[in-house]
Amino acid sequence: MKFLIQRVTEASVSVENETVGKIGKGFLVFIGIEDADTEALADRMVKKLIDLRIFEDAEGKTNLNIESVEGELLLISQFTLYADCRKGNRPSFVKAGKPEMANALYEYIINKAKERVKVVEKGVFGGDMKVSLLNDGPFTVMLDSDELFT
Fold first, then answer.
1. What does pTM read for this prediction?
2. How far is CA 31 from CA 3, 27, 74, 102, in A?
3. What pLDDT score was predicted for residue 64?
4. Mean pLDDT, to the nearest integer, of 31-37?
């Protein structure tokens, strides 16, 4: 499982020119899921995401998590995080999770995040989404379960 996290001052996602998710200060998170991922792993990744201290405190140090700043989440499924570009010039996506399983786990992640964060917005799984954001910093972090928990 991969979470590409961007600290934002605002972000939104639209499908067919209709906004389906919009947040203010918080995290825009692109979520990649592979077939081997489980709910137990999702629990660990969501905890890491929410506990991640990358908001500045009064002294300007990145010492606060999203709950501390009453931040919001915009969670977007993105199978392309599992692109394999090692051979040729056309990426392979064979490591990305099968749609039915990945969608179920994506919805599970959204519900877990809602247990701790008041505002959790989402995109449309498998949709042709247009994502807009104002990156704060810029500050972008990749959480990869293979690197964190193995």
1. 0.95
2. 5, 12, 10, 10
3. 97
4. 96
